[in-house]
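User: What would this chain look like folded?
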Amino acid sequence: MNKSRLEAFSDGVLAVIITIMVLEMKSPGGTSLADLRPVIAVFLSYVLSFVYIGIYWNNHHHLLHATQRVNGATLWANLHLLFWLSLVPFTTAWMGENHLDSWPVAVYGIVLLLAASAYFILTRALIRIHGHGSTLATSIGSDRKGKISIAIYAAAIPLAFVQPWIAAAGYVIVAIMWLIPDRRIERRVTQ
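Assistant: Here's the prediction, encoded as structure tokens.
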């Protein structure tokens, strides 16, 4: 199967996710800068989630750039990823509105963990089609950064009940790790 429909559908879903997140942000009632204070946590949660969706969009684009074809299993794996990412607006709003309370921070981390796991499953499904010697497989390699991310999420979730800001710091660290686009695929495709 051709990958173009999968790519277009995924881009559309990610655009809707970002739109929903910004629509969840409510403006303050007053007109002074002091009136912005109660929405700072909501704004910071939005920024973190916007960065995460941007990271997924960027890496998904690179992943599909190195892909020639898809099959039914990869379509479902991609939907699995989009399902978890579609929960980001809900968990973002819950975390921001409750000023980084334990349960919202933990649930946000669970969604990030499951999205990262779904992305890992998608990459494995695509590698299965293209073979372990393919450009895609060699550029992904052992996916050390992906595995480290999953480990940080898994550690941060229980930490949300000890100190939520430590868990949130873990989520920020993973985002920073991925902010620099993964050049492995670009290098392999251009060779």
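The two ends are 25 Å apart (CA to CA). If you want, I can go into more detail on any region.
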